[in-house]
Amino acid sequence: MAKNFEVTKRPDEIFPVGLRYSTPDLDEDETISSVMVEITSDDEETPILVVDGSPTIEFGTTVKQTIKLGTADVEYKVIFTATTSAGYVYEDFIYVKVRSL
């Protein structure tokens, strides 16, 4: 089941975004074993939102990626591809809307 969320940030803000998996996505002893992150936007000419460091897994159930920069008035998609200890793969995303003050 895909999870879609929306976050708004200013170009100078740096902070983590992430997702938490739970039942029914994960069985009782199942955990997230790996995660990859890709960032896209509809505007190919616009500088991309930037990741700061590598994605992390916390407590076996939460995936996070720190983001920074981005161009005002552009919407980005932060795509998380998470693989579980049982071998299931989930692809979920967060929309990040960059806005000026």
Specify the CATH homologous superfamily: Immunoglobulins
Q: DSSP helix count?
A: 0
CATH class category name? Mainly Beta
Overall geometry: elongated
What's the number of extended β-strand segments?
Answer: 8
Describe the protein's architecture and organization.
The protein is an all-beta fold and 101 residues long. The chain has one domain: Sandwich (Immunoglobulin-like). The protein is built from no helices and 8 strands. The protein has a 4-stranded mixed sheet, with no helix packed on it. Strands 2, 4, 5 and 6 form a 4-stranded antiparallel sheet that branches. Strand 7 (74-84) and strand 8 form a beta hairpin. The N and C termini lie far apart (35 Å). The relative contact order is 0.35.
Note the topology.
Elements: E1 4-9, E2 15-20, E3 32-41, E4 50-51, E5 56-58, E6 62-68, E7 74-84, E8 89-98
Parallel strand pairs: 1-8
Antiparallel strand pairs: 2-6, 3-7, 4-6, 5-6, 7-8
Task: Summarize the entry for a quick read.
The protein has no helices and eight strands. With 101 residues, it is mainly β. The protein has a single domain (4-98), classed as Immunoglobulin-like (Sandwich), CATH 2.60.40.10.
